[in-house]
Amino acid sequence: MGKSIIIIGAGLGGLAAGCYGQMNGYDTRIFEMHTQPGGQCTAWNKQGYTFDACLHHLFGCDPRNPIYHFWKELGAMPRPLLRISDCTSVVSPDGKLFMDYYDPDILEQHLKQLAPGDTQVIEEYIHAIRIFARTDIWGEFMFGTVWGLIKTIPAAPPFMKWFRITMQEFGEKFTDPFLRKAFPLLVYSLPSVPMGIHLMRHAYGCRDAIQWPVGGSLEFSKSIENRYRELGGTMYYGQRVVKILVEDNQAVGIKLSDGSEYRADIIISNADGRKTIMNLLEGKFIDHRIKGYCTQPTEESNWAGLQIYLGVNRDLSKEPSALVMLLDKPVTIARQNIESLEMQIYGFDQTMAPDGKGVIKIELPSSYAYWKQLHGDKRRYEDEEKRVAHDVIELLERYFKGIKNQVEVTDVVTLMTWEQFMGGTRGFANAPNKKVNFLKGLFGSGSETTLPGLARFYFVGVWATSAGATFINALSGKKIIQKICKTDGKKFLART
User: 146: Cβ–Cβ under 8 A, 6 or more apart, which residues?
Assistant: First the structure.
């Protein structure tokens, strides 16, 4: 073996760094505070129901797609997959349903039936989907060859205009009041997202490059952990890192909560960035820019900061895979004004629930400060969790008639839950505090992988990418090993 590498955290970035490190002759060890891999790419079982915390849409499920070969290198493909027919659906208070089908022919017919007066804007939308479906610019840019990228250049101009218009702006082109309100919510209820991101996701769905891994997020993470072990990597579970050892401004090892120390030539952190910088490294390697990144985010409301999981005695196999339920008037949940419910409905995967039953996950914006304050009083905190679950179930009853008598299991996950689970700050919102650039995050640039004045240390994962896409965070692990190989004058190798 060549140089040794210690990786803090078994999230997808850390697992990928471990796999590619092993492929390239490095002796890698991963130290994970929990007892299972995946970090945020996880799930858990409660009374026979599987509650999945991560995956919405898995990119790279088509063997013709470059992302597929990346997953194959990590041992995550091939695997059992389920094709999802709809991207996101929206239902109005009076029961009108808009299903954003991946198939553009079916989608066009469906939209024209919903809003016959909006033929022109519907055809513009469908034409844009077809343009994006012709060329996989995203895949070639992230994973393809130089020649493959060059071949996509002539197709690039028609794409770019769609990154200069938001979902909200395009939605305002509809005259139909339902579609005007529904369309901006198709990308995780974030109207400010560039339209191009939605179209790229749609294009992948058209080509079956977006599917669902049977069993969900944890099973997906375990397959990468298995690959890592097969490559000779070593996992240490139940090991909390409390300090990164530094000598002569070089990272040389780690110290665990039990006092034991481990040394290596290179340290990679897949842990929370703020905790890594300010706690594990005692705030010694920062400049004005990094200090700004480590301040707490200014947004009071966190997207999907509150998640409610329901195991229901109800067949959900005919329901949309993702649904936004519009409300007739705003309601207040955990001191947040809510105008719609964003949910994932797992009726398409029979492994997620007992026979004839199903799982629904509702994701709502919520305030970290609110739950942090409640957390100091266990009884108040738990009472509020119960109130949230009750209020959400009452709202769901409007669309899923009878569901409030069919709920068998509930689980409420707040930002404090994530903070404890991840050992980080502000739950899963652990990216650097900087303005999000969707394009940079989408194409893997603008990464924060090193710290000023500290050698032999790298970041992977969300802190490095500021992106939510699973494969982008995993890709950060590959890119770091490529960087290390280049520094060491080695040819980078990747093999399935």
Answer: none
DSSP-derived pairing of the beta strands 301-312 and 81-82? unpaired
- Mean pLDDT value of segment 5-30: 98
Phi, psi of 98 (to 5 degrees): -105, 115
Give me the residue label for tokens 């803090």. 8
- Choose among 250, 243, 278, 266: nearest CA to 453: 250
| Full-model pTM | 0.94
Task: Report pLDDT digits (tens) over 173-211.
Answer: 999 999 999 999 999 999 999 999 999 999 999 999 999
State the alpha helices, DSSP H only, in 115-216: 119-134, 137-143, 146-152, 157-160, 167-171, 177-182, 195-206
CA dihedral 438, 441, 444, 448 (to 10 degrees): 140
Geometric angle at alpha carbon 450, from 445 and 453, rounded to 5°? 140
The answer to whether 136 touches 66, Cβ cutoff 8 Å, is: yes
In one-letter notation, the amino acid at residue 127 is H
Match 């700050």 to its residue by tokens. 425
Retrieve residue 132's tokens.
């994006």
